[in-house]
């Protein structure tokens, strides 16, 4: 990737004119966040703190409330005051200030198949109000950062699933966000495309210092790429830490337990930790988990 010219973060390029931005080491803070759709309590007293500069993984099965939590943080869903803050800005009271700091890649397709890669990214640059004189250069930088420079003039309809995900990443990066939020960025991709997406996320994070909040239910990706993870189940986080910490805590609990668990001194996996806190495996909730995964294939969404 050619990240040489990427602006470091939105604060460096646009600023918000508000001291709250730099007054906290917390990129995201949720305190007792609740969100219901009718009788369905999607998020149920969520406490979450994402540190500035980290890659934080929100893990959980279908229906755990990850997308709802993310949409509350992006201000797309309304929340009461003092529940959600982004770099110190209240998501209820300072919606626009929060939005200016965010890049968001939703689960649903956000690229237009009938436009070229460059046209798609340019559209986002306009929507996010990238200054006109900087626009062309910033679009090139974003495309280069995800290695789509050579394919920039092809229609997005001709892109592979992995390229589309990288295009969506470029769209989110063009406004130089301080916080990049990705909802299941690798769902439906093959293993090579999945690691390519992660490598680009990682490289951009290193080049710019931005914070990344990502949802996934791929435990192995979370272990490999996230600095810390939160295991989410039924609307709240049940365990939070580095994957090493979470596994070691479970190992320690097993050591001090009585019965068969005490005899098991193997190093637990993150899946074991999830099973311990949720009483079930990550793939077991909802029954249709695998169907959902396959119907969300990025490539078919474009066709
Ligand atoms: N627009 C909606 N209307 C009604 N119920 C909803 C809506 N969106 C989500 N829900 C419900 O809220 C709960 C949490 O859903 P959410 O999409 O946040 O979970 P998730 O962890 O992101 O799962 P997924 O990976 O399937 O998106 C689920 O029970 C879901 O059915």
TrEMBL record:
Pfam families: ABC_tran. Residues 8-17 have a biased composition (Low complexity). The keyword RNA-binding does not apply. Residues 28-259 form the ABC transporter domain. One of its GO terms (molecular function) is ATP binding. Keywords: ATP-binding, Nucleotide-binding. Coiled coil: none annotated. Residues 1-25, 277-303 are annotated as: Disordered. SUPFAM superfamilies: P-loop containing nucleoside triphosphate hydrolases (SSF52540). This is ABC transporter ATP-binding protein. The lineage of its organism: Bacteria, Bacillati, Actinomycetota, Actinomycetes, Kitasatosporales.
